[in-house]
Amino acid sequence: MRKTEGFMIREGDLSDVLRLYDSIIEEFPKGERKSVDVFIRLFETGNYKLLLAHNGAGPEVGYAFIYTIGKLNKLWLDFIVIHPEFQSEGYGTMFFDKMDNFYDRYDGVFLEVEIPKESNENQMRRIAFYERVGAVRLDLKYYLPNEFGGLEMYLYYKSFSKDVLPKPEVVIEVIESAYEFIHSDIPDKDRWLRQTKNSQDGGRQVMLDYRRADSEDLNQLNKIAYESEAYWGYDEMFMSIFKEKYAIDEDFLKQSETFVMSDEESIIGFFSIKKHGLEATLEYFYIRVDQIGRGMGKKMWNLLIEVCLLMNVEKLNWVTSPGAIPFYTKMGATRVGEVGSTIDPSLKIPAFKIQLK
Question: Under a CB-based contact definition with an 8 Å cutoff, are residues 69 and 177 in contact?
C-alpha cells in the first residue's frame, strides 16, 4: 500500500533536466519532443520550470515541465510523467492538487492532449484522467507546431478557482505566448498559430465564452427560458404559469451554480444546477431558439458535465420536456421514469439521470 501523507513537489535544477531527458525520449512520440539544447535554452530563461514529485523521503515518482506566464497568471503544462512503477496509484491526481498550491498566484493551467484513437487505450485513459482532475476541453482547433509541421491536438484548461474557463481572447493570448516562448525554434510556427486561431467557418474562429451568470443577465435568461420552453408547443395558459413559476431572480443565482454560454455578441444559452452532497439537480438547460439544431446544445452539455466534475458531482438528476428526450438520450443520459408536471399534473414528463463518477 502506498503512503501519500508526505507527497510533495519541488523545483528541479538543470542537472535534473539533463538526467530526465532519456525519460522524455521514452515517454513521448517524436513529434512532441524537444532537443536537449531547446530544453536547456528554455530552462535558463527562468520561466520554464521543472517540478519533481516525491513521496516524502522516498524515490521520485514523477515530474512535469511548466511554462509560467506571469503577465496572464496562467501556467502551460508542457510535459507531465508519472514513472511507470508508480502509475495507477493516484500520484497524478496528487500532482495536480499540489500544483495548485505550489503556484497559488496562478489561475489555472493549460495542457495539450493527443486526440485519442478508439483503438489506443493509453490515449483514452489519458483523456479520462485529465477530465477526472477537472480539466476542461477548450472549444477551438489547436495545433502543436513541430519540425514535421503541425500536429492537431486537444487543448484543455484546468482552473485553480471557480472561474471555469478564461475568456476566448485570453485563451488566444496564452497560445500566442506559448508559441513564441516554447516553439520559437520552429520556423513555420506562425502558420500553425493562424490555423489555431481560424475555424472552418469562413476562416473566422468561433470562440465561445463561458462564465457565471450575474444580475445583469436576468432579463436575457428569462427570455431564453420562456422562448425555449414554448418551442415545444405548450399552450398560452401553460406558458403563463411557467413564466411566473420559473422566473429567475437574484436569489436563485445566489442559491445555484448558473453559467451562460455566449459568443462575441450575445448569450447563446445557459444552465443552472443545485448541488446536494455528491449529487446535483439540473434546474435549467436552455439554448436560444434560433441556435437550436446548430450543435450548441452539445457544446453547452459538455461544459455542464465539466462543471459538475469540477464540483465533485457524482450523479446529476433532472426532469425535462418530452420533446427533449432524444437530445438527452444522445448525450448518454438514462431515463429513469416520469413524474407529473408541476405546471400541469396531468402531463407526465420524463426524469433523467447521468452517473459521472
Answer: yes
